[in-house]
Amino acid sequence: MTTSLSPSSAGASGRLPRIAVLATGGTIAGSAPDATNTAGYQAGVIGVAQLLAAVPGLDAIAAIHAEQVASIDSKDMSLALWSTLAQRVNALLASDDIDGVVITHGTDTLEETAYFLQLCVKSAKPCVLTAAMRPASALSADGPLNLLNAVTLAASGAAAGQGVLVAFNNRIHCARDVAKFSTYAVDAFQSPEIGALGWVQDGRVEFQRKALRPHTVDTPFAAAQVWPQVDIVVSYAGVSRVAVDALVAAGVRGLVIAGTGNGSIHGAVQTALAEAAAQGVAVVRASRVGSGHVMHNGAAKDDALGFVSAGTLSPYKARVLLLLALAAGTSGKEALQRVFDTY
C-alpha cells in the first residue's frame, strides 16, 4: 500500500490544519554548556515555545496549539504521567478545532509511551511522537527537523487512521513495532522484522504499508487512575530466583520475563515463576533478543506452567499491555493469551 499526501492538499476547507504540540521534555528539549557536547546535557529544560521557534516554516504547514505537559528526562516517565498524557490527547483529538497531535518526548522510553498511547488513544486523528538524539544546543541538532517532519505528518491527512506513529530521522514507524537500537546515532529507532511504515521528507509523506493489529478506536483499553504492579525480570547465565520471590512477596500482580532466545528461562527462575503463576500472578514470557517472536509452547510448557506468550512484543511493551489488561480486569491465562494474540 502506498499513500502519499502533501500538507498543502490536506485541508479541503482551505484552512491550515490545526495541530496541538504537547511537550514532555527529553533530549529534544535538552541543553549543554557548548555545541560540541552531546552527552553532558540536561534534558527537558527548553520550553515548547523555544522548540517551535527553532523550526522555520512550521506556520506554513499548520496552525500550532502548544502545551507544556511535562519537562522530564524520559527515563523518569511514570504511569501517572502516561495517564495524564492519554487523557489530554483524547480531549484534544475530540475537539473539532484540533486535527492532530504531536508529542515531543525523550528517546529512552518513547517506544513504551507510543505503544501505551496506541492502545489508549480513542481517535482516528493523527497522533505522532518525535524526539531527538542530540540536545537542542548541539551542533547539527536533529530535533528541529524531526519536529518539522512530525508536524508535517500529523497535518498531512495520510496519517489518519494509522494509529499512533513515531516520526524520526525521516521514517514513519508504527508504535507497536518501533524500538530504540542505538545509544548515540541519529537513526536510533528501527522497526525490526517488518520495517518502517513509510517516510516523510521535504513536505512529502508516503506510507508503504499499514498496521494490521487493532489499535486506538479498536481497543478496549483506557488509562487507569490506579495501576496494578507489573514488573520485568531477566533470565541470564547464573541467575537466581531472588528477584521473582521478592516481587511476589511485595504483591506484584504481573511479571514479564525477558527470556533468552525464544523466551527460554533458566530452570531456577522458571520454577519460581511457575509457583508465582500458581498463586495468581500473571506471567508473560518475552525475549531479551530484540527482534523475532516468542512461540506459544502450548501444553508442553506454557499451558502446564501457567505462562502467557508475548508474541512479537518486547518485554517492555509486553509490560505495557499486561498493565492495561490487568487494569481492565482481564485475568486468567487463556484470556490474557487472547489479549496478547490480538494487540
Automatic annotation (TrEMBL):
EC category name: hydrolase
Residues covered by the L-asparaginase N-terminal domain: 18-211
UniProt-listed InterPro entries: AsnASE_II, Asp/glu_Ase-like_sf, Asparaginase/glutaminase-like, Asparaginase/glutaminase_AS1, Asparaginase/glutaminase_AS2, Asparaginase_C, L-asparaginase_C, L-asparaginase_N
Keywords for this protein: Hydrolase
Record-linked SUPFAM superfamilies: Glutaminase/Asparaginase (SSF53774)
Residues that hold substrate according to the record: S74, T107, D108
Active-site positions on this chain: T27, T27 (o-isoaspartyl threonine intermediate), T107
GO biological process: asparagine metabolic process
GO molecular function: asparaginase activity
Classification via PROSITE patterns: ASN_GLN_ASE_1 (PS00144), ASN_GLN_ASE_2 (PS00917), ASN_GLN_ASE_3 (PS51732)
EC number(s) per entry: 3.5.1.1
CDD domains according to UniProt: L-asparaginase_II (cd08964)
Keyword set includes Manganese: no
Record-annotated Asparaginase/glutaminase C-terminal domain positions: 229-340
Family under the similarity heading: Belongs to the asparaginase 1 family.
UniProt xrefs under PANTHER family: 60 KDA LYSOPHOSPHOLIPASE (PTHR11707:SF28), L-ASPARAGINASE (PTHR11707)
UniProt protein name: Type II asparaginase
The organism of origin for this protein: Paraburkholderia acidisoli
